[in-house]
Design goal:
The protein is mainly alpha-helical. Helices cover about 70% and strands about 5% of the residues.
């Protein structure tokens, strides 16, 4: 199709082509998901942001537009620019540069997602996301109601410090040959960890009792929860036995000395023992209440969310340090080419009458392009209105090469879709 034939096509709002496009609305307005043509893979034969019906219409009625573009390019090529070579159609060269840039970026993406580190992370992320979505559905669509882990651990540590000091003094003052300050410190740390572990497990189990041990829990879940719950209580009792035993050794020595010297025993003689033992119990109780407040009622929900965030953070770091830098290089190279193209176009524009006549011919082509875009925009608006009027909600899906997902898909609402610019590329 020549340029003359192309500009003679009827793309008026009353024409046959416009009527045929409008009739296609019935095919798409009730679709829950509509996949759009890619902005980053667009060319003269497939403009960006077209639905399937829009593209089928475009292929039928605008099939030979590329031949009209070639005719315009050939006319520009007859312009002699001296040592700079022959003339060119600026819009075609611009779109060629952008198309090459997008192709290079997509190639970089393919290579990135084939890397061993990325390949090992992706199934883990997918598995964690599936598990997280399942738990989120069980939780009624809410996010995990858990404390920040740093805050939780920090608070548990804070309440344990005073008692840890007393425990260390108890162990350090024991009159035993093997007891050194280093061993006393190690025992203190172990006791603190055991009590923290026990309070965490007991508090979490109390919070999740219905899901772990209640009537709806499976036998396997109940068995695992009971064993873990029992182990926590055993660990706490063992820790208290060690603390009580150490404190009793000092207590018994002081009592025996006072009995031998005939001193009268008073309340203050029993107070250190009560403070040490009771303090550890109090720390455990506080820890249990903090754990109840800090954990979500859905078992494993918070841990799964944290795991997913951590895995996605690792992928994001790889994306930024590897792929993003390479993408930026392609974008910078393309921008340099576009800047040079701008300078060449300014020089070409100074060629005079030849350039002006070629641009007038091109503007005729672009006038038809504008009419086509106007019809496509009208169809798009009608699609959204018809879907809304009939109670349908369409999710528009388009390729997004900025996505960290390998499939590089992005979902848009109707409002977002209407804001996208439909244009007809020249390359």
């Amino acid at each position: 199709m020549s340029l003359q034939e192309y500009v003679a096509l009827d793309f008026s709002v009353e024409g046959r082509a416009a009527k045929d496009l409008a009739d296609r609305l019935q095919q798409e307005y009730s679709e829950p998901v509509v996949v759009l043509s890619s902005e980053h893979q667009a060319d003269a034969s497939l403009p960006p942001f077209l639905t399937r019906s829009m593209w089928e219409w475009y292929s039928q009625y605008v099939e030979h537009r590329t031949k009209a573009i070639e005719e315009v390019r050939a006319a520009f090529a007859t312009i002699h620019l001296g040592s700079s070579g022959q003339g060119f159609l600026y819009e075609h060269e611009r779109d060629t540069i952008e198309k090459r840039r997008n192709t290079d970026i997509q190639q970089e993406r393919r290579q990135f997602f084939q890397k061993e580190q990325v390949q090992s992370l992706r199934p883990k992320i997918e598995s964690a996301r599936i598990e997280y979505d399942r738990m989120r559905m069980a939780a009624g669509g809410r996010d995990p109601e858990e404390w920040n882990r740093t805050l939780y651990i920090g608070l548990m540590t804070l309440i344990a410090i005073p008692e840890a000091v007393l425990n260390f003094r108890t162990f350090a003052n024991m009159q035993m040959a093997f007891m050194t300050d280093a061993i006393a410190l190690a025992l203190t740390i172990i006791i603190a960890i055991v009590i923290a572990f026990a309070s965490d497990v007991v508090g979490e189990t109390f919070k999740q009792w219905r899901e772990l041990i209640g009537g709806n829990a499976s036998d396997t879940t109940k068995g695992t929860a009971i064993r873990k719950f029992s182990a926590a209580w055993f660990a706490f009792v063992l820790a208290m036995a060690i603390v009580s035993g150490g404190r009793y050794t000092l207590f018994a020595t002081d009592i025996q000395r006072k009995l031998v010297t005939g001193e009268v025993l008073g309340f203050n003689d029993f107070l250190p023992f009560a403070i040490t033992v009771g303090g550890n119990i109090l720390v455990f109780v506080f820890g249990v209440f903090i754990a109840i407040a800090a954990h979500d009622r859905i078992p494993g929900y918070g841990r799964t969310a944290r795991k997913l965030v951590e895995l996605e953070r690792k992928l994001a770091a790889l994306y930024k340090n590897v792929l993003e830098k390479r993408v930026q290089r392609h974008q910078s190279a393309a921008q340099n080419d576009l800047d040079k193209l701008e300078q060449r176009e300014k020089m070409q524009a100074r060629s005079g009458a030849e350039y002006a006549s070629r641009r007038r011919a091109f503007e005729k082509l672009r006038d038809i392009d504008n009419r086509i875009v106007s019809l496509l925009d009208k169809y798009r608006g009608g699609l959204v209105r018809m879907a809304t009027t009939n109670g349908y909600k369409i999710a528009f899906v388009v390729t997004d090469i900025d996505s960290m997902e390998e499939r590089a898909r992005r979902e848009m609402t109707s409002e977002e879709y209407l804001r996208q610019r439909i244009r007809l590329p020249f390359a």
